[in-house]
Design goal:
139 residues; mainly alpha; two-stranded antiparallel sheet; 2 strands; 3% strand
């Protein structure tokens, strides 16, 4: 399914157009569900739970993008594309962008400060994201 705004991102090299692969979408959804479940485990560190929730978000957002026939190697673009793939308002996907920024600080600067409340909020957003992708893909 071509989306004009995403086609523009293909033209400037931010996305790649590829045929939808339903098996890949299903695998990504399964990964998102598994990582979200990991994020809910209170017997692991806050950092580990945050990372699991963030990875669940990325897998689900990428599943939505792939369902529409696009791919990106840029995580920010995957989250930003939710405006087009799932009709998410910016206020919703920006929660994921904030998590992305925290993840980058952890990965590239070795600094991650995260609280339980932030993980709970992120998990709620991710659960909604997974639900929206399931509705989109009919899975």
């Amino acid at each position: 399914m071509n989306l004009p705004a995403l086609d523009n991102l293909v033209r400037i090299g931010q996305l790649k157009a590829e045929p939808r692969n339903d098996a890949e979408v299903e695998r990504m959804l399964a990964m998102a569900r598994s990582r979200l479940a990991d994020a809910g485990q209170t017997n692991i560190s806050l950092e580990g739970r945050f990372t699991s929730a963030y990875n669940a978000a990325h897998a689900a957002a990428l599943a939505a993008l792939r369902w529409h026939g696009y791919r990106s190697e840029n995580r920010f673009t995957v989250f930003q594309s939710l405006t087009h793939t799932l009709n998410w308002p910016a206020t919703r996907w920006r929660v994921l962008d904030a998590a992305h920024q925290k993840r980058n600080m952890a990965e590239y600067e070795g600094f991650l400060e995260v609280e339980e409340s932030a993980i709970v909020e992120l998990c709620e957003v991710v659960a909604g994201l997974i639900g929206d992708v399931v509705k989109l893909a009919g899975k």
